[in-house]
Specification:
Length: 237
């Protein structure tokens, strides 16, 4: 049964999510992005669909906010393309128009909301809360590594679903897992991992990384982290 969260609870969850925001007008993008950053820690603001696709390829994105009128590929066509590979990611569309043609096309894309510009920020916040509730309802924050190991991205907990027992992660294992999840759509190099997991470069040795990877693999499954020889590592989810 779906659980309805309070506004405060939804705001707390929103803080931990990643938003992709597409708007080609720089002034609008910068102003809206400032507001979004008050609500969420990670916001990727881009001006075109091509840039948006690169972000989606390289990062874990939880919510998409897109203007309809964009240079080249418009927002409707972009979201239609997204829907061919992801049927449930929450989407908010923005437009200066309330034309019936746009509204009818948008309703086919399973949107969370359709907001008209200029943006009412209370309406935007409410739409984002609806996105979070949708994420909770569809368990998009749960990552399954194999038949019995799940990771809760929001609460940073790894657990065995058969026994319903939590699997303890060290601080470094948690940092490594979260980093691999954040960039799960691409291969992450050894140097990138070492530079981001260890603050002291003297501690960031090849053997330290290998040891950490092996420990994490024992907890989430050996096949869950793929080694691309000579390139780096990618999470298999």
């Amino acid at each position: 049964m779906a659980k309805n969260y309070t506004s405060d609870k939804l705001s707390n969850i929103l803080k931990k999510l990643n938003i992709l925001y597409i708007e080609d007008e720089m002034n609008i993008r910068e102003n809206v992005q400032k507001v979004l950053l008050l609500l969420c820690d990670h916001v990727y603001g881009v001006e075109s669909v091509d840039e948006a696709k690169l972000i989606l390829e390289q990062n874990r994105i939880d919510i998409i906010i897109s203007d309809i009128n964009l240079p080249g590929t418009n927002g409707l066509d972009f979201i239609e393309e997204v829907r061919t590979v992801d049927k449930t990611i929450p989407v908010i569309l923005l437009s200066a128009y309330t034309d019936t043609k746009y509204l009818l096309s948008a309703t086919k894309l399973k949107l969370i909301d359709y907001l008209t510009k200029p943006i009412d920020f209370k309406a935007l916040n409410n739409a984002l809360h609806k996105c979070v509730q949708d994420i909770v309802d569809n368990s998009r924050y749960i990552i399954s590594f194999n038949d019995k190991i799940n990771y809760n991205v929001l609460y940073k907990k790894l657990y065995d679903i058969e026994s319903n027992l939590e699997i303890t992660l060290t601080a470094k294992e948690l940092e490594l897992l979260d980093y691999l999840i954040l960039y799960s759509n691409r291969v992450v190099s050894q140097d990138e991992l070492k530079n981001n997991i260890w603050k002291d470069s003297l501690d960031a040795t090849d053997s330290a990384l290998k040891n950490l990877l092996n420990k994490l693999r024992k907890k989430i499954g050996k096949e869950s982290i793929i080694n691309i020889s000579g390139v780096g590592y990618r999470l298999n989810i």
